[in-house]
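Our consortium's second objective concerns turning raw sequence data into structural hypotheses that experimental partners can test. To show how far this objective has progressed, the report includes one record in full. It was chosen at random from the queue rather than selected for favorable results. The single chain below, 342 residues long, was entered without modification.
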Amino acid sequence: MTQPRATQAQTRWGLIGASTIAREWVIGAIRATGGEVVSVMSTSAERGRGYAAEQGIAKSVTSLEGLLGDDEIDAVYISTTNELHRDQAIAAARAGKHVLCEKPLATSLEDARAMVKAARDSGVVLATNHHLRNAATHRAMRDAIAAGRIGRPLAARVFHAVYLPPHLQGWRLDRPEAGGGVILDITVHDTDTLRFVLGDDPVEAVAFSQQSGMAKAGLEDAVMGVLRFRSGVIAQFHDGFTTKFAETGLEVHGSEGSLIGRNVMTQKAVGTVTLRDADGERDLPLDHRNLYETGLAAFHAAIAGKGQPSATGEDGVWSLAAGLAVVQAAQSGTAVKIEPGL
């Protein structure tokens, strides 16, 4: 096993998957935070060469072994379809590469826990790309709750029903074996964001899913449900691929006030947070920054031994456990316990 480099001036990255999210967000964030992308892996040689040329990446390879055997790579970003994450992440960890993996970490809890163990055993950093933790809006809400500004949290509501654009429709809508469907794509983000904002863990889920014409192969393209947290907080969520004109939001209501986040469940550094209490209504000050750059800066710091990534591998196991519980609850019509097994 190659030993990971603990500190360095510049982290050198390999991309496992020539993906849209890497092109639109992650490559730029790596570069903006002092990293360098040196190679990309695609099973299609033609796609890989074209992607590398378009993104200014020096190398493209067609196999995982070709990427992980490169001594110039310190860390990998995994953005392949969900059923591939486990084997790719474990191989990367055993090769001494730090790992940033897209959510959900895997399609089963057993696989996700194996990924966490492999990273721990190899002494590398494993992070889950839950970008919403990095939003100024959610950090302001977390800080306000921790400071007691709304009293005791009682309930929350998440509005994360959006429209899945045509260029992203593919496997998310027609491949159950790849972890398709709105729950493992969006609901896992809701759960992670609620865990982060509330400082609390979900323990039970109930849900109803919907097939409204976009998803195929028995997958859901919308879902509504409720999560119950350890503290007793209950949280509603509405997620969808089919709502073209909805606004996203996150609300937390407490015994002494409410926090109203609008346009906050997004990849963009936008949105507002309003505090309502006995003194009236006012917007919280926000320092908007690129969410992915904030996450990559934390990841690079973690590699250097300075703190943790924004969302750890364990955080990814928690969000997957909640997502799978929501899937089961929607299928069974019963309340399902959320048990990450960590």
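The partners drew two points from this record. The chain has two domains: 12-124, 132-293+320-337. Confidence is low (pLDDT under 50) at residues 1-8. Both points have been shared with the crystallography group to help prioritize constructs.
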